[in-house]
Amino acid sequence: MSAVGTLAAIDFRAMHHLAELFPGKALTKVGKLSDYHAGLKKSNADSDVYFYDSGKKGATVLIVGGTHPNESAGFMTAVVILENLKIETGRAIIIPMVNQSGFTCTDPMEALPMYFEIRTDKGVRRFPSGSRASNPLDQWPDPLVYTQYPSGQRYSGGESRNLNRCYPGKANGSLTEQVAYSVIQLLKKEKIDIAFDLHEAAPEIPIVKAIVYHAKSEALAMGAILDLEMDGLSYTPELSPPNFHGLSHREWGDNTDVLPLLMETSNPIQGRLRGKTNSDLILKGFSPNYQTAKETGALKIAYDQEGESLESRVGRHINGIVAILNNYNLEYPDKAISISGLPTYFDLKKNKIGKYLN
Ligand SMILES: [Zn+2]
After folding, report:
1. So what's the pLDDT on residue 16?
2. Model pLDDT for residues 312-329, shown as the tens digit of each residue
3. Ligand 1 center to residue 270 CA distance, Å?
4. Domain containing 273 — which CATH number?
5. Is residue 95 a part of any domain in this protein?
6. N or C, which end of the chain is more exposed by having fewer CB within 10 Å?
7. Does the pLDDT at position 179 exceed 80?
8. Is residue 221 a part of any domain in this protein?
């Protein structure tokens, strides 16, 4: 890279700050992904890992946000949980920005906002909106074809920077493969019992407003979906396909003892019809184009006519996690994990998300 190119890169990186988070009182420790794979030390991918240990017997849950840093509700759900969580039995571990590198850039050619701002009682907080993939400044060049390790499955080259194609990862692999490797080591070393990977997708994607489950998590997903239906919240169950490699819900389950689940909400800013693209669309999720598509029935989409607000998307994730943990506790009463302090979907819709940020 030329000197000019290097300077431009430094400038660009300096412009894109990560957010400061304010964990609640139940926090017991903050670690790093590099605690599980030293290769990440001092890299742009060495993300924080937050621990909440009740000190009492029970399961350990892992909650992962920011696999795709452009999917703001996945990240913000982890933030709301880490700033509000109370824990009575068991242990929770939260990684809000698991692909930290991807939070330092946006997807090219999409005119996406770099930030969104949320008003809280103490002032305005700014959060990064990132890219689906790791920053090319951290991992470059992309191969023409990305050969997934170790399955040998082939994806387009850009997918080599997509963390959710890189599991179970590789200790001496690319930066993104090393992040995946560190998460697998964490799952093993911390003896995680149940793990959530929080996502979003465009309203026109078939797997949206969904709970994707590994076969061994099926009973939990199905039980939770019935419970959520009673609350008036509808989730589509999706079995993780056995031959689709590199994804968390597949590889976490195949390579460790964990029960993995992935959840998707409907986020208009990720879709082709989104129209005016700004931070308001991240926050309110209101798009006149999707409204028309829904009204005319031109597309089969998952879109609420009031808009898919950040509150409703984060609320769906939180209610989904709580319902699945309740079902876990019914199935494994000797290892029950008991958490509290989290706002529900209905609390978030009523009071707005800023009320639940420190
Ligand atoms: Zn995603």
Report:
1. 55
2. 999 999 999 999 999 999
3. 10
4. 3.40.630.10
5. yes
6. N
7. yes
8. yes
pLDDT at 18: 87
133 Cα–ligand 1 center, Å: 10
pTM for the whole structure = 0.95
CB 343 within 8 A of CB 315: yes
Residue in the structure block whose two tokens are 């989104």 = 274
Q: Ligand 1 center to residue 184 CA distance, Å?
A: 18
Map residue 195 onto helix, strand or coil: strand
Residue list, CB under 5 A from ion ligand 1: 68, 71, 199
Supply the pLDDT for residue 108: 87
Task: Look at residue 1 and tell me if it is in a domain.
Answer: no
CA of 29 to the centre of ligand 1 (A): 27
Element housing 250 (H / E): helix 248-255
Q: What distance in angstroms lies between residue 313's CA and the mean position of ligand 1's atoms?
A: 13
Number of domains the chain is built from: 1
- Domain for residue 139, yes or no? yes
Domain of residue 316: give its range: 16-356
Q: Separation of 212 CA from ligand 1 center, angstroms?
A: 12
pLDDT digits (tens, 9 = 90+) for 282-291: 999 999 999 9
Residue 262 CA, ligand 1 centroid: distance in Å: 9
The DSSP bridge pattern shows strands 48-53 and 29-32 to be antiparallel
Find the helix packing angle between 310-331 and 72-84, rounded to 10°: 60
Measure 201 CA to ligand 1 centroid, in angstroms: 6
Distance from Cα 339 to the centre of ligand 1, integer Å: 26
Q: What is the pLDDT of residue 3?
A: 47
**Closest CA relative to residue 93, chosen from 102, 101, 81:** 81
Average pLDDT over every residue of 52-77: 98
The two structure tokens encoding residue 84:
């509000």
Q: How far is the CA of 61 from the centre of ligand 1 (A)?
A: 20
